[in-house]
């Protein structure tokens, strides 16, 4: 698993994987040292045999050599005739910048050794990115939630928000409502596949104050009274619209 920062910037990691490697004792032949595989006498070395059934001729894998075309009369004591043994190996993997969950990195020739000295296959490393405490990634964009006080939301202000490149100032205009999204262009992720850098989108959440003392509660009550005296419609248009909707709904039910 990678951190979001490593996935965005790129890094080099070491992984330890179980794999099959060519047997060093027999060099992958599967035969005991000093001997060598012999041609299968059943299929003549082609690995296939023909079966005649009436008018039909069927070709199938040789039951004697299992399609190898060769037989090992004296198998290697280390690999027991398989030509490869199980080991663990540690690999250094260069992770390019911009990878995301599910991306795969191909390591050519680092897969399992082929049978009887055949070339090794490739190893694919699948990327998994850990959850981040602040950011959520969606393709090239990053999202985060920013709590603000209701005073800042009402009067406006500025605050510092984190990005993967450090802190930047975010200006909050007066009368900002909770859930409003602010876009910081170019503060997202540049995809490993190329294209423009994504954006950082900050969603503000207005935090209700807690643990108020008596004086603070009285001030809020006084503030609420001044708001009510001037009418809900002026200071809370959404609340006014909602109350009108509720009234119409109840009136329709009574009809």
UniProtKB/TrEMBL annotation:
One of its GO terms (biological process) is protein refolding. One of its GO terms (molecular function) is zinc ion binding. The keyword Transmembrane does not apply. The keyword Ribosomal protein does not apply. It is found in: Cytoplasm. PROSITE patterns: ZF_CR (PS51188). Its cofactor is Zn(2+). Homodimer. This is Chaperone protein DnaJ. It comes from hydrothermal vent metagenome. The lineage of its organism: unclassified sequences, metagenomes, ecological metagenomes.
């Amino acid at each position: 698993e990678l951190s979001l920062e490593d996935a965005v910037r790129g890094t080099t990691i070491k992984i330890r994987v179980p794999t099959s490697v060519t047997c060093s004792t027999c060099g992958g032949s599967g035969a005991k040292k000093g001997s060598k595989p012999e041609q299968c006498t059943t299929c003549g070395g082609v690995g296939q045999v023909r079966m005649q059934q009436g008018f039909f001729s069927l070709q199938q894998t040789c039951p004697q050599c299992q399609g190898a075309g060769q037989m090992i009369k004296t198998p290697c004591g280390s690999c027991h005739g398989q030509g490869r043994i199980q080991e663990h190996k540690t690999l250094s993997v260069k992770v390019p910048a911009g990878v995301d969950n599910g991306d795969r990195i191909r390591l050519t020739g680092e897969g399992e050794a082929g049978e009887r000295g055949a070339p090794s296959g490739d190893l694919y490393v699948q990327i998994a990115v850990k959850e981040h405490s602040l950011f959520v990634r969606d393709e090239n964009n990053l999202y985060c939630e920013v709590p603000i006080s209701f005073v800042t939301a009402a009067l406006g202000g500025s605050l510092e928000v984190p990005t993967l490149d450090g802190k930047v100032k975010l200006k909050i205009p007066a009368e900002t409502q909770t859930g409003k999204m602010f876009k910081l262009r170019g503060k997202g992720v540049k995809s490993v596949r190329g294209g423009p850098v994504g954006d950082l989108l900050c969603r503000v959440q207005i935090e209700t104050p807690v643990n108020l003392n008596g004086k603070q509660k009285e001030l809020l009550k006084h503030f609420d009274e001044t708001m009510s005296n001037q009418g809900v419609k002026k200071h809370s248009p959404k609340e006014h619209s909602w109350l009108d909707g509720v009234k119409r709904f109840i009136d329709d039910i009574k009809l």
